[in-house]
Amino acid sequence: MQKQPKRIVQFYSRNLPIVVMVVIIILVALGPFLLMLITSIRFNADINYSPFDLWSGTYTFENYLKLLSQTNFLEYASSSILVATIVALISGCCAILASYGITRIRSRLSPAVMNLSLWGYLFSPIMLVIPSYVLLGSIGLVDTYFGLILTQLPMALALSFWVTFPFLRDLPPDIEDTAALDGASLYHILILIVAPIVRPALLAASAFSFLFSWNEYLTARVLMSGPRKTLPVGLQDIYDSTVVDWGMLMAACVLIVVPVLAMYFALQRFYVDDWGVGGIKG
Fold this sequence. Notes:
This protein has helices spanning 3-14, 16-39, 44-49, 62-70, 73-104, 110-119, 125-138, 145-170, 174-181, 186-197, 199-215, 218-223, 231-241, 246-274. By secondary structure, it is mainly α.
């Protein structure tokens, strides 16, 4: 037991440059978040006087109270949670189905379908937002959650497809063939056998789709108005409608980041537990 501390000291002494670089990278990565977090609990007078003097003055949660009581932040947050969750669920499920169909059903159209999913990235969102607005306006879906979800799904689905496709492509079909010989239907094979094996890919695809919808600004800015605005649009409106209240803005940024961090830490265990897990237990 006494040799263990010596080994740790020897390891860090031998790899001191690498350790220093890792520490610097961590500080650079966490620096903006630390600045945002501490600024959110400072008085505006202290922020305006010395914005980077984080450790002086007094701290308060007044900025959070003002944000929740004097703005529509909670309504914006509920809109973002609703839209991002639906986009994540639909894109993740559809991506699994599309990836399974392309990898298991041999067809000359499979390469064309895969290339078609990539062509969507060739168009800038700003090229599509006006046609989308005109089309949705003609059928009465402007300023509706359904219309916003329809505009976000194509990009989210393409991203989810290319996350799940390599997993299913590299998954050997032996397990599925054995289940088919035992009388399992295609539905049971996909839901009970394939889906648990590729759960890390499904969770990753859904997480990416959630983040995409959570951060999406352009289409939400054009399509949504009133209390149905999402958080990026609502935060911009809070910035434009007041004298720059940096404490309240930083409090809003902290609350926007918290659900993303919570989702990451909640799903991390599944990534670690399921990564590389096969479908046969010996």
